[in-house]
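Supplementary material to the annual report.
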Amino acid sequence: MSAIAYVDGPEKVADHDTYLDDADLPHDRTTHRALRPGRTPAGIIVALATSLLAWAATAEALAVALDLTHELGPAGRLADRLAGLAARPWADPVVTGVACAFVVVGVLLVALAVTPGRPRLVPLETADPLLAAGLTRSGLRRTLVAAARTVPGADTARVRLRGRGRRIEVRVRTEARRTGGLLPQVSGAVGHRLAALGAQSGHEVVVRLRPKRI
Amino acid sequence: MRSHLGDRIGLALVGLALVGGGVIALWLRDRRPAAAVLDPRIPPFLTAHPWIVPAAGALCAVIAIVATRWLVLSTGWGRRGVRTGAGTAVLGVGLGEVDGVTGVRVRQVGERRLRASITCDPSCDPGRIVSLLDRETASRVRCSVGLPEAPVVVRLHVRRRSTARP
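Predicted assembly:
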């Protein structure tokens, strides 16, 4: 990962040392897998819809088998509507629309199932194969702000994670008139904190320093 | 060590079923545009074979039971686990030398895994926490709950403000 430091105004750009270069360790994949989102909200919705439909179909089949279709109530009305749909020809626009909706929703569900998704936690590097640690994104921002503010002269700091965490942007405001030494210090403090964490989220750190306006 | 796969498997199965149904319907639209969706030959066929409807009902009941079980598990049944005081105590002692750790909690999810949650102040160095966990604290927590081979998933959070008083 390369860290780049910028200064507003007369812009200075400094390539920094590599902080995170072990992202391809085999255990890192294990950590990513453990912290991957499980698609729970979509799972709840689809499971609820599937179970309701399946119970309704069971009730309908039972009623047909026992010849009780007139006593089904809401399930019977649903069955009547489905029977109305079943009486239409295949070329009917409603049938075509339902079929297209099936395909679109099905593709979306398969895509949800197979795409990894963004972990809610930023994976942290560990050596123990049975340990998966992750830091919340807000927690990463706060700890980097705290690291930047340890530098004398850095009065305020803001951190933003951009591009799914691949780019960490640190904005520092200072009242100091001379800012030449501040930029590498902030960059170093943030880099040291990231290196100590072993955060596997970012590939690039950008530090922007805004000096006091005269 | 993986996150829960059940929802993904269920979503993929339902999605494939929907895609399959939709594609077959579109194919039938091109092949037999004037034919009714419910073929007129089907009701007499069902009358002639009275076992089909109860069999279909049984199949629907099985699908309904599986889907209901999926729903119950998705809503968190058996996933959240139970708090383990011994694990929490061992984790607290293990991280005692780190300044700024404000809260620790360990939950045991069945016999499968442990979930730890650690909260610290912004001034705290989370890297030190991870280092301690990695070195020995995580294995001590495992041993304290009697699951020496259980995976541990740790959620680390940094509070907005420091709790330390001047």
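Residues 6-31 of chain B form the longest helix (26 residues).
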